[in-house]
Amino acid sequence: MEMFGYEFPLDIRISFSLFFDEYREFLKSDNKLVRDRAESILKIVEEYPELEQGIITENRVQELLPQIELVLEDSFSQILQKNEIKIATIPFSNVVLKSTQRYNDIISAAGIDFEPQIKNLNEDNYFIMGCSIILNKYYGYKIDFRRPFFYEIPDTIGINRYYRILYNGDFIEIIKTDKAKEINEQDVAELLDNFDNVAIWKEKFPPNSWIFKGIVIANMFDVTTDVSLSDFKASLLRYDKTKDNFIDSFQNIFRAIFNLPEIKVGFSNYNEEDQVFERVPFKSIDSYILFDQYSDDCESALCKGSYYYLFNESKYFAISDVNKYQKSTPQEKIYKNLIAQNINSAIIAPIENHGKLLGVLEIVSPNVHELNSINANKLQDVMPYLVDAVLRSKAKAEDELELVIQQECTSIHPSVYWKFRQEAKRFLRALVDENPVSFREVVFEDVYPLFGQIDIKGSSDARNSAVQKDLVLQLQSISKIINKVGEQDALPIYEQIKFRIDDFIHSVTDRLQVDSEQKILDFVKKDITPLFKHLRKKNKELETLIHEYNTSLDGNIKMLYKYRRAHDESVMLINKEMAALLDKKQEEAQQMYPHYFERFKSDGVEHNMYIGESITKQNSFNKIYLYNLRLWQLQVMCEMENEYYQLKKDLPVALDVASMVLVFSASLSVRFRMDEKRFDVDGTYNARYEVVKKRVDKANIKGTNRRITEKGKLVIVYSQRNDEREYIKYINFLQSKNYLEEEIEMVELDDLQGVTGLKALRVNILYSKNKKDKEYYTYEDLMKELN
Is the per-residue pLDDT at 241 higher than 60? Predict the structure, then answer.
């Protein structure tokens, strides 16, 4: 019988021969009722012998359904019709020969034309399951390929319910045909190793080569809660909480467990350090107790009852009628929040581990009494899995925090990360073997260094000037108030304070000393602030003046911070823009050839790079990659200069920058210093490179008092003649690309601490007013254009 729309190893013949054999035995019974029943059933088979021989067409099955109903009547007890979920069928099929009333009601509730399908069983699985019936029933191999079979059927309120199917195979016969192949031990061994290879199964069991004769009785059991709990565990392991469908799946599972279609699920984390509840950091997951806040103090977020149950009893708190609770305790925020979200019943449950609160599970409903202290007990089955998931989630969050801190604060560049992993594995293996070792310093031999900086010129002087202006302006404001007080109340003490203020103004204006700012801060804090608190109570005019003065101060340092803020914001913006451009360009450079890179922001942006075989670990390094990186560095310095001078006109304080690169021709060793968490050159000879890096931008051109670095110029510092020749080639190329002006200036540097013989190439940078502008300007021309 073609009962499936696909291949099957068994030719299906619906037969009740084994039923009739049983009834023939009943004819021998001493019980007359049993004999009479057996005779009536056997009369049916006399009239319709194909019920025993086997029905081979679906149409004939439909025609014989009344007789089939009578034959199966004893298997479907009338008194259990509304209790049992049972059907007579054939394996893995939707053919229903007879069913109980409860099964019919379940299918009817699912909707018109609903046809149940066995979950997680595709065509290949069907075929292999058919083969397993042959192996078990005919050959006697106890091979269990089967997973539990389930029907997924929606109920009247739209919740998917799950029914486990248990097949009774007592009434089937498996008959071998001449098309069937003999199966031996070797065949079975091969099949055991090839469950997923359906072609091998079809080779051993050709389609329709065996006959299935009989029927199966399928008993079903509602296992919605069990399946939902299983799905719940799987979802906690499988789903990505950042995906929008995670919470939908989660809510559907809870709706099935509670059998309530309108409930929603929320979470809030417990931050033990700050004693607050916080939202879970995923946009699709709500917290109904926090409502529109990111975090809230625990006592404030909860009512007294829920706080006591969660923190003292470690038990859930059920609110069956939110409005009723709100009326009895109108001051509690939790009920106001729930009502604002149209929540009328809720369960607030602690997620805890060994007495330690991890967070709160919030189940809410728009319906009164729908959630209560009785169905809250269902959470006992859920909580152990949720606790495990929250512990994992918190551990993962801590790892992510650590990762961010490492990346942002103690970054290990990706190009060298492999060596740290290598050393970390060695370190952990030693701990496992109980052979404690120290974490060795990571060293990279024979690498070539590159250093560059774009420095803010005169930043210290500019900041000192801003400090002077702020201090003088604040002192003058204080003086104005003291003068007004003196007019109203001529006490000698006010003259003495006025004298001290004038003295401070004079000393700061004349020359800013290292301790000037601190002295004035102490004066204001100890003398002026307490005095002004007293004076503002005297009259309205003084209150207004002192209020204006206080408003002008920075809230943190309680000092005037007008000019310093403008300067600091300008430096911050310069650093931010330059670093962002450098980082973006660095990504491109890494694609050309991997190398170590780090940058620092202070009064400008400086960067270190190291390139060499020991970093890349690929036996692929060639000096061409070093030359390429040197050219790239010069080009990026020019682009950063251009970017800056387009930014300059929008800065609170107009500052200038100067660019420099340092060339070191020899390779060196670089060591990661564990105590300082940074890379540094290794060895005494290489230390010369670090000395030059720190001091070269402050050096003068030999025989002059002019700094080597200068606004509008790219400066290349070197010591070897071959470096000079190499960099002139790069300069010539960049000149052809309109990055640099034609003239090249060659100068010598004053000697640095123990370092002599340094030279420099200096070239004017060409600028454009904007990125699309095809006209190019020197620094002086650009300043005229911008101004």
Answer: no
Q: What is d(CA 34, CA 31) in angstroms, rounded to the nearest whole number?
A: 5
d(CA 447, CA 626): 10
In the numeric block, the tokens 């100890």 are attached to 526
What is the three-class DSSP state of 60? helix
Q: How many CB atoms lie within 10 A of CB 439?
A: 12
Residues 713, 763: contact at Cβ < 8 Å?
yes
Alpha helix (H) residue ranges in 553-703: 562-592, 613-616, 623-647, 684-695
**Could you tell me what percent of the chain has a pLDDT over 70?**
89
* Both tokens assigned to 676: 């300082």
480: tokens are 């104005």
- Cβ–Cβ contacts within 10 Å for residue 302, how many? 23
The model's pTM: 0.56
Distance CA(681)–CA(359), nearest Å, equals: 48
Q: How confident is the model at residue 344 (pLDDT cuts 50, 70, 90)?
A: very high
Tell me which amino acid residue 40 is: S
732: which residues sit within 8 A by CB, 6+ positions away?
none
Going by pLDDT thresholds of 50, 70 and 90, the confidence category of residue 238 is: low
Q: Please give the Cα distance from 395 to 391 (Å, whole number).
A: 6
Spatial distance between the Cα atoms of 363 and 360, rounded to a whole number of angstroms = 10
Residue 285 Cα to chain centre, angstroms: 14
The residue among 629, 643, 658 whose CA lies nearest residue 727 is 629
Give the Cα-Cα-Cα angle 473, 478, 479 (nearest 5 degrees): 95
Please give the Cα distance from 606 to 660 (Å, whole number).
Answer: 9
Length of the chain: 787
Which residues touch 779 (CB under 8 Å, ≥6 apart)? 645, 711, 712, 713, 764, 765, 767
Mean pLDDT score, 46-63? 91
Q: Do 740 and 763 contact (CB within 8 A), yes or no? A: yes
Answer whether residue 229 shows pLDDT above 90.
no
**pLDDT tens-digit readout, 442-481:** 888 889 999 999 998 888 888 888 888 989 998 999 999 8
Q: How far apart are CA 74 and CA 37, in angstroms?
A: 10
Instruction: Give the full edge-to-edge strand order of the sheet including 149-154.
Output: 98-99, 85-89, 216-222, 160-168, 149-154
Best CA proximity match to 571, nearest among 415, 466, 682: 466
Q: Which of 96, 117, 126, 88 is nearest to 9 (CA)?
A: 126
Residue 144 phi, psi dihedral angles, 5° rounding: -110, 95
Q: Encode pLDDT of 447-456 as tens digits.
A: 999 999 999 8
**Residue type (1 letter), 200:** I
pLDDT digits (tens, 9 = 90+) for 642-681: 888 888 888 888 888 999 999 998 888 888 766 666 666 7
Position 86 scores a pLDDT of 93
Residues 611 and 629 sit within 8 Å (Cβ to Cβ) = yes
Q: How far apart are CA 561 and CA 568, in angstroms?
A: 10
List strands edge to edge, sheet with 264-271: 295-297, 276-278, 264-271, 356-365, 345-353, 317-319
Both tokens of 474, joined, read 């604040």
CA-based nearest residue to 439, from 451, 452, 425 = 425
- Which strands make up the sheet holding 210-214, listed edge to edge? 10-13, 210-214, 172-176
